[in-house]
Amino acid sequence: MLFKPKFCCSCGEKIERLDWKAWTSRRFCQLCETDYGLYDWIPRVLFGFGLFFGILGVSFYWQKPAKSLHILNHQNSDNSLQSINNLKNQTNSLQSSTNQNVQETAKLNDSNSGQNVQKNLQAALLKQSLPQTPQIKRIENGKDAAPETSYFCGAQTKKGTPCARRVKSNSRCFQHVGQSAMLPPEKLKIN
Questions:
Q1: Is 191 exposed, middle or buried (0-12, 13-18, 19+ CB in 10 A)?
Q2: Distance from C-alpha of 79 to C-alpha of 34, rounded to nearest angstrom
Q3: What would the pLDDT profile of 132-170 be if each residue is shown by its tens digit?
Q4: Which residues, 6+ apart, have CB-to-CB distance to 132 below 8 Å?
Q5: In terms of DSSP H, where are the helices of the chain?
Q6: Alpha-carbon distance values, 33 to 42, 47, 112, 116, 141 (Å)
Q7: What does the pLDDT read at residue 25?
């Protein structure tokens, strides 16, 4: 048995109905039901949708797949064959380039000792396999650039503390150009 109110929640009038059906309003009288009937139906509709999708979700969760299908697309199989062929071509080209390197080292072997040949071979293989980065170039050249010394700006800020912006030389940042530093240059230097 559903709830049967005695009074309307909007106007407070006594509700006297002979027939209580599932779609009759449980909150409003017949007069207020025409104005506020939509507010009475919104929770019912949302509950119905939630119940429907809940049952649907549980049924899909418990349903077992009948048969797993393995569909192979002709385009995908052609692409995989092409990628395998490309891989074979790349390995063949690498083998031919290493053969050329071996031939070059054999020519050098006649003129150089065994240790120099081994070093040259390793260097040639490294150059071929690794991309040239600035660090590798610097190591090959044997020059290590001295790190630049940097400084703090050191000018007085509005708070009265020294500015902590980094500058390349013992000068001021763009905000404090022309001002003097609060600290001596030795304390402004960053190691």
A1: exposed
A2: 66
A3: 555 555 555 555 556 678 899 999 999 999 999 999 888
A4: none
A5: 30-62, 74-111, 114-129, 134-141, 185-188
A6: 13, 20, 106, 101, 91
A7: 75
Ramachandran region of residue 142, left (φ > 0), alpha (ψ -120 to 50) or beta?
left
CB 17 within 8 A of CB 24: yes
Task: Please answer whether residues 178 and 155 qualify as being in contact, where contact means their C-beta atoms are separated by less than 8 angstroms.
Answer: no
pTM over 0.85: no
What distance in Å separates the CA atoms of residue 41 and residue 26, rounded to the nearest whole number?
Answer: 10
- The rounded radius of gyration (Å) of the Cα atoms in the chain is 42
Which residue is it, tokens 């025409």? 34
Instruction: For residue 15, give both structure tokens.
Output: 């509700």
User: Can you read off the two tokens belonging to residue 20?
Assistant: 């209580």
The Cα 34–Cα 94 span in angstroms is 84
